[in-house]
Amino acid sequence: FHRGYYIRARAVDHCVRDFLLKTQSHPRTQIVSLGAGFDSLYFRLKDIGLLCHTVVYEVDFPNVTCQKAALIRRTKELSALVGDTGREGLGVVTFSGEDYKLLGADLSELSELERALEEAGLDKDIPTLFVAEVVLTYMENHRSDAVIRWAAERFSRVCFLLYEQMHPEDAFGRVMQQHFSQMNSTLHSLAQYPDCEAQQRRFFEEGWTECSVMDMNEFFTCCTPEDEQKRVQALEPFDEYEEWHLKCSHYFVLTASKGMEPSWTPLLPNATVPRDGPLGTAGSIPAAVCPTRSGISGLRRYGHRSVLIKPNVILTTGGFGEEDGRHCRMRNFHVLIKQAGCWKAGSVRKESPDKRWDERLYHTVSCLSNSLALVVGGRTSPSSPGLGMLWLKFPETCSALEPEDITLELVSVQPAAEPAALRWRHSTTEVTFKGEKYLFLYGGRSALEPVLGDWCFLHTQDLSCAAIPVEGPRPEGRHSHSACSWKGGALIAGGLGAAEQPLGSVFFLRELEHGFQWQAVETHPPLIPRYSHTAHVHDGKLLLVGGVWFHSSSVPGITVVDLITGLCMDYTINVEHLEWPLMLHNHSSVFLPNEKELLLIGGGGNCFSFGTHLNPEPVSLSLGNILASH
């Protein structure tokens, strides 16, 4: 929430200040804030001395402006900024100061708006900036288009600043739309102007000669100074990267101008980031709700882990989700058992009188035998230290043919390598060196370090940390990446780097006679940077599933990387047969190689202020066709 509202205020402040700077040689300028509500823009600008020759006009419904006027009058700091001339207005002018006019008018009635502004003294021949922060979208499109067209036609030197939502059709967009519909506040612009390109065309068609637009991920990366980015990132404990980046990909800032000399271009980036082109896809994969017996509950969660502990038996642990009618860190384990082509929920009984689960998120679970799995790391809150290691013991005799209660014993582990495990959003991958099995613990983050780039080889017998030489170029530190075993080594793909930017690199840690070596895997076309995805290897193909990327024209589906040729192909996931939005981040996935079936379990999260969405049921993807075509 804090970052989401910060970036909105930052974008508006950036553009408004740029307008004031570029027009400071003019004797008079003016700003018109449409649907201003209780915005404090005027008071902030006045307080720091930026309104020496600028009048600010604010317009909103009369009942809103009356409340705001009363608030200004009874707050001495605000009254002092307006000055002694601040007085109750007449007619549509609710409050009037020397450089501040508060007008009560309905924006959707253009003639009423124009009359109110003329009555308040608006001059159509001096440089004018219109500001519309999430306001025009609540109007019917023909009315909002009319306002945009009127501003371009009636003012000789004019600029427009627009901040609104976009991308209504993906999972986050559907949750966003549902939220506003429930509030009886339909977002009218989304259907006709769903993305940056459509909004830019809109302004050109309505008579504007210059127009730039970018989503908020691009604005934060390109138009926010690096020291300011670091300041914001360090302000408070933070671990909601997916939600932050998804929110930013669903809002844009647009600036347009006409008659300005020189041109008004506040969105010129201070960093070069390649713009999205259309994403070429090799096809689509239909998604279907897993065939189940009597439904499956208990898997509405994210930040969990799911692992195949035996053929047709999947254990899911941890995460944050819905339990006992409330949202919380998950205490209960969950088991899925496949019988006669259908999945059903088994029951799990924990035996751990001396050991609590610790309700962890973003941990890893590695199945080391048919009766033993190792839990490594995870967290409770992002301000708490990472959690250590834990054995999960289960009976060798539990069978998918004779379902019964599965008993899990939690056993504390305190090896010498324990400090290396105090992290989350990391990976643990089984590798082989000189015939011995190790868990390769890599990356992640901790309460003190937002990104880790170190590693450790855990011997699977005693969990000691082995000193095995590693040569080659060290990969950039990362968390929320994927890791898979392959040819005795480990494949690391994607992740979020130190600057909170998604990574598109793939590395193979391959075994040598005297140790391991990092090798970069070149892909073509280059892999689109992503994080919070899952991954599997099958028959020399790396499968990357879901995640979050900055390629705002689409959401990640399945990417297949041929590990021999480097060919990289993207497939969309067809969700038309699902009755709910499918959010593919913070999920888990299990690949069943015999069936060439991929199970997607859980996923989702908090959708800014629009509510929490958790995928309600496991989803099945049949990958036989795409694997056969490679």
What features would you describe in this structure?
The chain has 630 residues and is α+β, with helices and mostly antiparallel strands. It has two domains: 1-258, 3-Layer(aba) Sandwich (Rossmann fold); 285-319 and 423-622, Kelch-type beta propeller (Neuraminidase), CATH 2.120.10. 20% of the residues lie in helices and 32% in strands. It has 13 helices and 40 strands. The strands form eight sheets. It has a nine-stranded mixed sheet with strand order 3-4-5-2-1-6-7-9-8, with helices on both faces. The mean pLDDT is 91. Its EC number is 2.1.1.290, 2.3.1.231. This is tRNA wybutosine-synthesizing protein 4. One of its GO terms (molecular function) is tRNA methyltransferase activity.
Averaged pLDDT: 91
The strands making up the biggest β-sheet line up spatially as 3-4-5-2-1-6-7-9-8
Largest sheet: 9 strands, mixed
Shape-level CATH architecture of the largest domain: 3-Layer(aba) Sandwich
CATH C-level class of the largest domain is Alpha Beta
